[in-house]
C-alpha cells in the first residue's frame, strides 16, 4: 500500500459552507493552470453533491468558464436511501458478465420465491413488498459485509416464536440458493456490485497509486468498503480526506462514549477515524486561516447532544454565550397547516434581501408539498421539492391506478367518475365536451343508490339517450380489451400491463387536430412511469400468471418507492431539500421543518425478516444507527448563522412529541432567557393575519321576500310540515327550484327502504282489499312481494343481513295488526291515492295536495281513518296536536272536503301512524288520541284553519321566509342549511 509520513485528514466545521470552502481551496492549490485543475479527482457522497460542487466552482469564479476537476459520486449514504441504479464508481463491471440487477428485476425474482412460500398467503402485492424488504436485507448484509451463513445457527441460539422460525427457514433457503440464481441470471445485488467495484478501485490504486491529487470529501464512512477507500486515499501521495463537521470541542470522555452510541451525531466519524488509524487531534482544519473553529451554535448543540451517559454534566457546564443564540429562531405552530404557512412566510421574507437564499430541510414530504403550495400564492412563486414526489402520486400514475381500480370495481359509479374526470381522459375529444358528457351521465344515471354495476348495466340505462350513446360507445371501445378480463382470470404481468396501458392510451388520446400530444408519457413523471412500465414488460414474466383481481394492489406495490425528482429547480434562491439532498449544501437561511419525533428523526423501521435480537446475533447494525446519521444531518444544518427550528404541536388533530434534540435543548436550557427569546411568534402572527379579512362582516340570517306572484300557490302536505318548521327550505325548493343532488352511488338508505315497504304493502292490500288469506299464506305472499321489490339489492350483504330480517319481522307484525283492524270493522278504501283541496287566500286560490298511503272506512258508521306508513320515527301525539306535524290532519281535511276521488267522508274516525321498523319492536300503531286531544275531525279542521292562516301570512309581501325560526323543533339537518348558513350562525352566536 502506498504510504506517506502521516495520513492527510482534514475537517470542515459545522456551520461553514462546506462545498464553497472545498472549491476555494482546490482553486487556490491547483487552479493556477487549467491542466493542473483538470487532473484533480474529487469524490463526494452523492450525485447531488457533485452537481452542487460544480456550482460552487462557478461561484468562486463569478460564473467564468473553467476546466473542472473530475467530480465523481462516492456512494457513501445510508443503504435504505441508496439509488443503486448503475451503482459503482467506475465505468465497467465488477466481473466479466456481472452487472447489477435492474431496480425491479431482483424484486420480481424474490417475489416469485416469496409467493411460493406460505409467508405471502398467495397475495402478489404482499409478496412484492416482502421481496423488496428482503432485497434491502440482502443489500444491508452485502454493505456491512455480513455473511448470511450465520443464519444456520441462529435458530438454535435464540428462543423464537413460530412465525420467526418459519421466516428463518425461508431465509436459509434464500441463503443457499440465491447465489446460484444470481449466477444463472448473470447479475449481482446492487450493493454487492458496488462493494466489488470499490474493492477493484482500491486494488487498482494500491498497485498503481495515482500521482495526481485525489480528494474524498463529505463522507462519514458508514459503509465498510467506503471506509477502506478513504483509508487508502488519505495515504496516497496527493490524497486528502475531508470530513464533514468533526466535533473538536467534545471532551475525551464524551468522544469515547460516542463511539459506542449509534444515535450520537459523531458516532460514525469516531468509528471512521479508528478505521483510518487517525487520532482526532491529528485532523487539521481545512482552510484554517479562514476559520475561527466551530461556531457557537455548534458548541451549544454539541453539549445538548452529549451521549446519554454524559448528560449529567449539563449542570456543570458554563452558561452558554450569547453568540450561541444569535440568528436562532423557533416556530411552534398549532397544526401542520399553520406550520406550512409560517415556513412559507419565512422563505418569502428572505427574498426581500437581494441575492439572499433560503432552504427548507425536512424529511416530511407532506409538509414540503404544503409549503410549496403556500408559496404559490405569492405571484405564483414556484419551488420544487428536490427530494422528489412519489411516482404513485403523479398524474400519469394516478390515471393508471384509476383505470385499474375502475375495472376491478366493475365500473362502479365512484371509480368510473374518478376515471372520466381525470384531466388525462379525452377519448379524442375536447376536455370540455367530455366533461359535459360525464356530468350528464352523473346527474341522470349515477347518483342515488345503484342496485347493479358494470359497463353493460350502464349501457342499458343509457339506451334511450341518443346524446350520450356516441361517447359511451367510444369509451366502451377504448377500454374493451382490458375490461374483458374477469376477476378470476390469471395472466402474466406484461400482458396485464399491455392491456392496461393500451386502454389508458386510448382513453388519453387527445383531440384530433387540437394541437395536443399524448399526456400520459410526458414530462418527468410520464417518462419515469414509461421507464417503469418498459422495465416490467421486459422482466415481469418472472412472476408467472397473476390473478387479475389483484391488479390494482399489485400496481400500487410496483409504484412504491419510486420518486420523480425535478430536473431543475423552479427558483434560484429558494429550495426544499430532503435530508439526503441537503447534505453538504448551504443557504443563507436554513429552516428545519417537521421537528417531531417519528418524523425527524424518523421512526426506526421494523424488519419483517429479522427481529432485533436476530439482527444482533447475525452481526447487522442496529436500526438506531440511522438515527446517528440523522442527528449528524440535524447538527450540520442547525449550525448556520440564520436558522429556524419548526414543528407542529398537533398533526391531524393528534398531539406530537418534539424531536429528541429539541427536548434535550429544552432540558439543558430550561429557564434560560435567551433560549426562551428564540421563539419567533411573528411568523405565526403573520400566518394568522394572512387569511384574516380587514373587517368582519356580520352574517345576518337570510330573510328573502320574493314577490307574492312568485310564491307557491300549491304545496303537498309533506311540504307543509317543512314550511312550518323551516320556511327558508320551501323558498329554496319551491321558489328558487333548487334540488339536492343525491350522492354518487349512494348506499341504500331509509328512503329506499321506505319506498320498498310502501310498494309491497300497496300491492298486497290491493290484492286482498276484501279478505285476507290465512296467516302463513299472507306472510309468504308479503315475503315473496318483498323479494321481488328488493330485487338485486338482496345481493348486497348489508341488505341481506340487516334489512331483510327486519323486513320479515315487520311483515309478520303487520299481518297480525291488519287482522285486528279488519276485526274492528275497518277495510281499506283508498291506497296510494292522490287528492287535493283548494281554498281562498288573499293572493288567490291555494291548493293543498296529498298522496295518502292508505284510507280505511269503518263499516259501522262510514267514518274514515287516515293511515300513514313510517319506516323510521313517527311523530308524537303532541307534535300532531300543536300543528308541528300536520301531514295526517291535513290529509284528513282533504278527505272531509271531498278531495279524494271516490271517497266521501263526514267524520274522521282515526289518525294513525304505522311504524314498521322491524327491530326489537317490529311494529307499532300510533293513534292520535288522548284525554286532552280533540277528536280527529276537530284536529283535521283545526289544521286546515291553521294552514289557511299560514298561507295568508305569506301572501303578505313583507313576510320573509326565515331559516329555522323555531330551531328547537328542527331535529334533523335540512337540505338547504348550508345556503342559510345555519352552522355559521350556530357557532358564532348573535355576532356571527
Automatic annotation (TrEMBL):
Top-level taxon of the source organism: Bacteria
All copies of domain PD-(D/E)XK endonuclease-like, residue ranges: 718-917
Coiled coil: none
InterPro entries per record: Ds_break_AddB, P-loop_NTPase, PDDEXK_AddAB-type
UniProt-recorded name of the protein: Double-strand break repair protein AddB
Gene: addB
